[in-house]
Amino acid sequence: MSATILTRHLHSHGLDLVTDTHKYRKVVALRPLNKGSVVITSRPLCNPIIFPTHRTQHCETCFRTKGSGSATDYGASAAAGARSGGLELERCSVCKKRYYCDRDCFTVAWKGWHKWVCQDKDMEDLDYEMLKMIVISIERLRNGAFKESKQSGVATATAAAAASHGTGEQESLALTEYVFSTLMGHEAISDPAEIAKYREIATKIREQLIVAKFPFKSETSRGEPPSVAELMRYLCRFHCNNFSIHDSQLFTMAEGTFPVGALFNHSCRPNAIVMYEGQTQVVRTLEDIAVGQEVCTSYVDNGVQRAERRQLLRGKYYFDCLCPRCGGEGSGITTEKTGFRILDDLIEGDQDGEDGKKVDGEWLTKQFETIILPGARSLQAAGPSLQPPTMINRGSFTSYIIHSLVPLIQTGVTEQEYTERLFEIYNALRTTPHCTPKPFTTTVMTNATSFFNTSLEHQSWALASKIGTFILALYLMIYPRHHPLMGLHCFTLAKCLWNDVDGGMTSVRLSHEILKLSHNILTVSHGRTGQNGSLVKEVEEFMRTVETELGS
């Protein structure tokens, strides 16, 4: 296996891996990539690790969810799964800690890895568990024990995800291992305390595998497990390149190593998103990507402030971000901040509440009750730029952002047109007087989100609708327009509006418009096939319910 094979694989997907002065290397498009398309899929190097708190809810082998569709209808909607009684999981009778959806998945797990880890008490440590799984996976691949066979729901999920991205080559296990070997681990600049910890874990695993008489039969291993130094390199690569695996609702439930997916660099304003179909990682475009343009995902939440993002990126990935939002060479940096570089100055701030007092429900209610919800028709057609309000408070901010940006998404303007309008808004917010506390900081967003969830729990639909619309305005300001978080929030907001009986048909009509927005966004971020596509179908099903009430 060589770089030539990797190049051929990437070329088959319309991608190329090129060197870069600042980033070491980067993935660029060889052909135009339309927004909402699957760029490539990536398979895990070894079975991903489900967090202990989520083990009872997911099959360890195929990741199907308890209560979802049965083993024969993988990818069916949640509603269909519920009607059929839902998927049941059974735990391993020996360790009583891992769960499986059927005997096929248990057999795959037992032969593949579980019999070597079933009674290992140290498997509760994530680093230990992942390293041991990587060693087992690589050795089984090298000695021919790991075949490209149909493995219950795993193969079904992988095939479904791969089928959705066209004619590109399927990723072989050998390619997965090769790409992993090329990933950077940054051992030389890692924290000495972390390196000492890795050495201890590596030594323990090596000794345990020798005692357990794990069959190291490949020509590479020659009967011996990898050295402690090699095991430490594995663990360093994992730490600098691992992914948090989430479901279609963006709830994190596992971690895994996806070497091909790790080739994509980070941007705080990404043009692609990482999603998952079972154990298959799917990289999807959020915007149209031109020939020669770099394809970037995001390693951190784009909704946190610059200082926190920098700390996370430096602490885990060992680089300083030079993307257009953070600034740096090649990002259009000037003496005066422009474009996306204005955003972080706008959202920075740790104040919320009145005169330094603790924020409570009564105060927040007064802030959000003044918000006037937009009319449905006002969101349907894009018009000229709006004049900013003379004073920015939560109500005027919400109206300005929603009326300025939602129609652009609904009518499908180009990314350039949308970005130009966004920059106009940033400049207006920077120069227009605002109330105290500043209404569009991440601190305000955090408090608003918490209060929104409280309002949902209390079924205070009218108040929740106003808070949810304010949060949508913040998301529009901060996140890429087709970010899945925004689409999911719109779906929840539409349900609030529909449940707001006091709002009458006005709320129902606005619910329908927000559902259309949710559908536009999630079709790009989730697609229409597989598990993720089931969410889009749920939106469509609810939309039909609302349309029936509207008589349309």
From TrEMBL:
GO terms for molecular function: zinc ion binding. Coiled coil: none annotated. Residues 85-300 form the SET domain. Signal peptide: none annotated. The keyword Metal-binding applies. InterPro entries: H3K4_H4K5_MeTrfase, SET_dom, SET_dom_sf, TPR-like_helical_dom_sf, Znf_MYND. Pfam families: SET (PF00856). It comes from the Eukaryota. Keywords: Metal-binding, Zinc, Zinc-finger. Transmembrane segments: none annotated. Residues 59-118 form the MYND-type domain. GO terms for cellular component: nucleus. This is SET domain-containing protein. It comes from Linnemannia gamsii.
